[in-house]
Design brief:
single chain; 126 residues; alpha+beta; Aspartate Aminotransferase, domain 1; 6 strands; 24% strand; globular
Length: 126
């Protein structure tokens, strides 16, 4: 049964639509934004802890981003990424700031996606 429910947070990704490297994909039942091949942001419009914006980054970069935007905190399931709930009063400001950082190619944001296993390709290499 196809889902007719649209993610109400997709407005966050509108800033990326003019970027030729932008790709949107579904992930964890949410929507993910890739820029320059890096997984940057995930918009989650479900129940907590999947109800806000996940910032795809490494743990070494958490402190610098949290210093700048204290509402960002490690996600309670995916602790390697930061998260702000859409219930947070600063949510929209943080979402706009994060899209600006992504478009500015801030090195604190974005992770290499894990390659998918290519079963048929693996057997051809042998």
């Amino acid at each position: 049964m196809p889902s007719s429910i649209r993610n109400s947070l997709l407005w966050i990704f509108e800033a990326f639509e003019r970027d030729s490297t932008y790709i949107a994909k579904r992930m964890f039942g949410c929507d993910a934004a890739y820029i320059d091949g890096l997984l940057c942001l995930v918009a989650a419009d479900r129940d907590e802890p999947w109800n806000g914006l996940l910032v795809c980054t490494s743990q070494e970069r958490h402190a610098a981003l949290i210093d700048e935007m204290p509402a960002l905190q490690p996600h309670q399931v995916l602790g390697k990424w930061l998260y702000v709930s859409q219930d947070d009063p600063t949510f929209e400001i943080i979402a706009q700031r994060m899209t600006a950082l992504v478009l500015a190619r801030d090195p604190r944001v974005g992770v290499e996606p894990k390659p998918r296993r290519a079963r048929k390709v693996e057997s051809l290499r042998g």
